[in-house]
Amino acid sequence: MIHCRPKASTYFVLGLIVLAQVFGLIYTLNHFATKRTYPTFIYLSLTVFLTLVILLILVKMMAGFKIISFGKDQIITTLPLRRKSTTYNLPQVLAWEEESVITNKREFKQLTLVFEDKNSFTISNHEHLNYNEFSIYLHKKLLKKKIKDRKKP
């Protein structure tokens, strides 16, 4: 079985961003408690903004932590934070699609699988390991279920 899991570098960078924002929030609250050189609404709006951004990034990190394993004519999806693991046989895949967009001279690919129980699973080449191996596996095993490329106007 080959595993597609999120890249550690993605979570490391997001963690550093959250840490910097937490330090900014602590500094803002400390400055408000000790000096109060700015009007109160500035402190209030800054703390609300920083708190919302911190929460949004943390939710994105937790919701995006998914692992997909494939091999032996099975696909296993795992959501570790929910403690949920589902095994699908290849005939249970309804359809799959690979989208490709070129931005800033780099290619961004996203692969979406839809299963019989109407669950879907999405991985991308910039955020997950073994993306290319999974794409090759789907092309070999499930070529008939691939959604044809849409024509763009």
Task: Outline the secondary-structure elements.
Blueprint: E1 2-4, H1 8-34, H2 40-63, E2 67-71, E3 74-79, E4 84-89, E5 93-103, E6 106-115, E7 120-124, H3 131-141
Antiparallel strand pairs: 1-2, 2-3, 3-4, 5-6, 6-7
Helix pairs in contact: 1-2
The side-by-side strand order for the widest beta sheet comes to: 1-2-3-4
Total of helices: 3
Termini Cα gap: 40 Å
Order of helices and strands: EHHEEEEEEH
The main sheet comes to: 4 strands, antiparallel
Structure notes:
With 153 residues, the chain is an alpha+beta fold. 41% of the residues lie in helices and 30% in strands. The protein has three helices and seven strands. The strands form two sheets. It has a four-stranded antiparallel sheet, covered by helices on one side. Strand 3 (74-79) and strand 4 (84-89) form a beta hairpin. The protein is elongated, with a radius of gyration of 21 Å. The relative contact order is 0.15.
Q: What characteristics describe this protein?
A:
single chain; about 150 residues; four-stranded antiparallel beta sheet; elongated
Outline of the structure:
By secondary structure, the protein is an alpha+beta fold. It contains three helices and seven strands; from the N terminus they run βααββββββα. It has a four-stranded antiparallel β-sheet, with helices on one face. It has a three-stranded antiparallel β-sheet with strand order 5-6-7, covered by helices on one side.
